[in-house]
Fold:
Amino acid sequence: MPLAGGFVGILPALKMLDKDETNGVRTVLNFGELCAWGVALAFFGVFFGVPLRRQMVVKEKLRFPSGTATAQMISVLHKRDDPTDDGREETVGSVGSVGSVDNGLRRRERRADDAISEESESGSNEPHEDIAKLGDSEWATKLIALGGSFAISGTYALLAHFFPLLTALPVFGSYVSREWAWNLMPSPSYAGQGIIMGLPTCTWMVVGACVGWGILSPVAKHEGWAPGDVLDWKTGSRGWILWVSLAVMIAESTVSLGIVATNEVVALAGRIRRGRNESSEDVDVETVDARFLVPGWITWGGLAVSTAVCMGIMKALFDVPVYDTLLAVGLALPLAVLGVRALGETDLNPVSGIGKVSQVVFAGVMPGNLVGNLVAGGIAEAGAQQAGDLMQDLKTGHLLNASPRAQFAGQMIGSVFSIFVTAGAYLLYSRVYEIPGEQFPVPTAQVWLDMARLVNGHPLPEHVTPVAIAFAVLFVALPIGAALVGRSTSVHMKIGPWMVQKSTVQRWWPSGIAFAMGIYNAPNFTLMRAVGAFVASMITEVIVT
Structure:
């Protein structure tokens, strides 16, 4: 809630507005108003995230690395098989957690039966004890790996706190580090995320970093288009290449969703012609019994009610017209799809960039209204953040055969409690510390504020528009190419002089989302993930095999 509700970005930015920029609206909120603000933002993203599960978790099987890691952790703690074993995604149980039979348990039982049979044939009288010892050995190995990884990661975090140099190693030389922000943050947690994300995704993130931070950033600075410090969001090349990143994400996500929507429309038309209510494909895709799914009337009814509540509260707090708030929510929902897709592929939800898109749009809808601009950005960020958090949880539940309906209920309960806890904590910190101040400078709030001022009085950074359009056009074509590859019935495909397996082409097909995230984040966020993915790939695909 502190992030999704804008308590570390939007609300401090509202406090930082000059008096002549507030249009007479009070921007410092009391406890009751803070709670009302939380209620306005806490729920519509959760309701909207529910229907995304079927497409992104069940059908597309996006990775959602943090959700996958959580499922693996739970499995280790409960001595279960790794839920991401080969075939696990395709054979997840047919019903939810209530009354379901865990496939991992069935596989273990089959192995046990085989072992018992072998032991009986060899004359052994203690097969059960041998299998128990084998299970204990596997458990001990996993526990040692877990404890060792935890110790290494914790040690690094502790050392990095006392020796900040460890968070930005100048592996490419001091000049490149100082002038162009090319550093390595050797965080074991970043490496772990890279292992989960996989080598192809991390590779395209590195390509994006090389293009954005290795080519576009120096060009923008040397040409005088972004004369400030490289890491400055307002005048530096980081703020300049941000627009290229957003153009790529919006282009690929829009086309990808358009392809999905077209396929669904075609399938629906076919069902209507055949007089069928549902296709066999749809029946086969869903892995959870309908009793454990969130009913449609709750999803769409809740979305309508939470949107209406948001409209009323924003009108009462900041005098934002109700139709503008409705437009902000309407814009936030497709942007949330963009964020969830990025999260599913890279474990990074570009909520800040999504908020910036909303700010750009509302600079035209409400010109000169900085308060309304910040509120619109906060609505977009909240929708993407809440939907993304729920999707990570639903990915965990999908791997472990949990009930989506129970998870949704838990998310709603947590959201309600978090409103009051977060509002109280924010008010406490605001009274004890100066925010922004030396101890809590809240740089995110400054970014929001600078962006609101920029879009309400200044154009986009110099010469960024043609570059952003060029990259957007390129990444419009790539999803279309990926769809054509998927439709191909050939097992092998000819690429130049080589014959390559179709599965390999699909695995390594350029990912616009990963490419854009490589541009959006500084290189030190990308490089260690790539290192983790590369090392894991070498171990699993070269050494082990």
User: Anything to note?
Assistant: The two ends are 44 Å apart (CA to CA).
